[in-house]
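Practice problem: DUF6603 domain-containing protein
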Amino acid sequence: MDQAIVLSSGWHFVVLDSGGHGQPKALLDYAFNKPKPTRDDGVEVEPTPGQTDPEPQTQPKPKPKPKLADAGVPDTKEDGQGTSKGAVEKTVSTFKISNVGIRYENSELIIFLDIIAHLGPIEFALNGLGFGMKLNELKFDQIGRHIPSFHLQGMGIEYNQPPVLIAGMFKEVQNEDMKMYIGGVALSVLPYQFIAIGAYGEVRKPAFQHANETFDMASSNGHTFKTVFIFAKLNGPLIELEIATIGGITLGFGYNSTVQHPRIEDVPTFPFIANSGTPGSGDPLAVMQSLSDPIHGIVTPEDGSYWIAAGLEGKALEILDLSAVVILEFNPYVSLSIYARAQASMPPETPRIACFTYVELGIMAYVDFHQGQLRIEAQLSPNSFVMNPFCHLSGGFALCYWFGNSPYAGDFMFSIGGFHPAYKVPSHYPVPPRLAITWALSDMLMIRGEAYFAVTTKACMGGGMLTATFNMGLLSAYLTAHADFLMEFHPFFFMADIGITIGVEFDLEL
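Answer key — structure tokens:
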């Protein structure tokens, strides 16, 4: 007969949320000091972290990929079974608790909290605020005299009261494979805004990672590498020319670190070019975290990789706003990438909703000289429209060429709006979305037009489609017209498909 295990062997520390509605809810259950399972020959087997009743293992586990801890609630260490984490949204007066975590190490039980406190326009953030208790020293008859230990992974402060913004953050990130110090500051007094972020630390080399050893810089024995990066951005009127104004400058440098390249759809929000550190433009502490988070951040440690970045932001002809950054990376081979965000509106200096045309475009260009790839892409954002905010523009283009050491050397492609529906797109080709216009004329009438064109080393194609749908309760109608052409060169093949579909529906319940 199967038996359900309610509590596994060992000590349990459970965090409950009463919620004020009667039945408590368990946020997390942390088990520690579990007895080790044994094989038939009596040999103890290490349990897999996070597994309630692990099966015996006779082979050692592979070493994990280098992992750097999040800001706030830290990761596993030593004799605990990892850090149990639970998401919680609790607000008490001006305090907000966003995360809770528990960890057991060196006979000490520690509970961690991420806390945000508001005092008027000032926001304080305490990441990984921990309170620990040595269980081997605890006597229940003297529990009131026991002094807990305190831990703090990081802290931040923000004053956001336009036109003034001041923010700063500092955190220490440490686990079994690294120790890192990260800090940032943002200052804004309109029309000038400044943001700077930096990090320094030491990371264990992949060949010497040991998941169950505490990281110690003093005894690294050459098995580690040091990493550092600095990023700074200044916005404000800097240089005025006849047809353009330079309104921002960006600089960055990284030693033993790498920049995570965004996808084309994420370019407008890429922190190197996105609006950041300005009143009303978002949380500068969140911007700093997005840049410096060693797991999901834009900049992460990597041995033997170096990069420099420089960018400008400006306005041309009163209608075009452009922000661009160039990143040169040595890893150890040279690669060059350019990311840009362009915005154009007509008439100029008009609120977006009142514009006749508003276009927002993300652009990226990437060249890897060792792998032999040139890649240029651009894509309209969903915010783009013409004539009416309900008349949306969308789509993208891509240009690629492969050379040198690439297995696809000699191949190229150019596409605006994608490919023919019957064309088998090679796996190394990017597929831009259809160039389209979608207009909701009313609640009853919707019109959409699409177009595409592409040329490759083996084929040429183009086409378009127009659809109109009408829906008025019981009565609905639609019209679809399309034309698609495909020509392949070797061997020669040509296909054309043209069609019109019209339909009317009437639903009557009897």
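Discussion: The first strand starts at residue 11 and ends at 17. Students who identified this feature from the tokens alone can consider the problem solved.
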